[in-house]
Amino acid sequence: MASNILIIGSKKHSDELQDILRAAGYEDLHAVEGVKGAAEAARSRQPEAILLDIDLPDGDSISLIRDILVERPVPIIVHATYNQMERVKEANEMGVSAHLFRPVTKESLIGALELGMSRFRQCQALHAEVGECREALRVRKVVERAKGILMKRHSLSEEEAFLSIQKLSRNNNMTMEKVAESIITASEVL
Predict the structure, then answer these.
(1) How many C-beta neighbours within 10 Å does residue 91 have?
(2) Quick one: what percent of the chain has pLDDT higher than 90?
(3) pLDDT tens digit sequence for 61-102
(4) Considering its fold, how many domains does the chain have in total?
(5) Which of 54, 103, 105, 132 has its CA at 20 to 30 Å from residue 159's CA atom?
(6) Is residue 102 within 8 Å of residue 79, measured between CB atoms?
């Protein structure tokens, strides 16, 4: 259960959402009317989740979503009416975690909030995994390049070149990446 939720929207809708959330046991709720002050509230309060009315009368909710997510990834759950489907689709493309349609019930609000937070955690884990894979691929390319240099200069097989890099890494207490970079730098100097 989230303990710090920012609600952005009209006073009427924000009060309705706060009443439902308080009745469900959520305590640390903060409401902001409209776009003005919403980005600053998201920055200063560091909410665990944001409930955002897709139809903000004083500005563009899609731009607000983008601004908030660029600054700090956070689960954003948008609420709207069914006739605002195009705006909801735009929000989904911006990276919102979930959406719900009015009229809002306790079950739909809690479900969307928990689902949005769960989806957000899954996306963050995938982003981290993609980052790790990119880094591993980058290191592998460096090692492959160094292997190629050793194979060409010392007439080694691919396995022998790899074992040489591995041995240098172990003996010098360096990562294979650092050893490979040293081999590449040395070959460029020679």
Answers:
(1) 23
(2) 84
(3) 999 999 999 999 999 999 998 889 998 999 999 889 999 999
(4) 2
(5) 132
(6) yes
- Give pLDDT tens digits for 150-166: 999 999 999 999 999 99
Whether 117 is covered by a domain: the verdict is no
Give pLDDT, residue 59.
82
State both tokens at 176. Answer: 């294979």
| pTM for the full predicted model | 0.77
Distance CA 55, CA 79 (A): 9
Q: What is the DSSP string of 32-84?
A: E-SSTTHHHHHHHH--SEEEEES--TTS-HHHHHHHHHHHS---EEEEE-GGG
Fill in the DSSP letter of residue 104. Answer: P
The answer to whether 38 and 62 have CB atoms below 8 angstroms apart is no
Token couple for 152: 């060409």
**Is 88 found in the same domain as 149?**
no
- Torsion angle of C-alpha atoms 114, 115, 117, 122, degrees rounded to 10: 140
- Residue-range definition of the domain harbouring residue 10: 5-104
CB 79 within 8 A of CB 53: yes
| Three-state secondary-structure class, residue 48 | coil
pLDDT band at 3 (very low <50, low <70, confident <90, very high): confident
- How far is Cα 86 from Cα 91, in angstroms, rounded to an integer? 9
Same domain, 21 and 85: yes
Specify the CATH number for the domain of residue 39: 3.40.50.2300
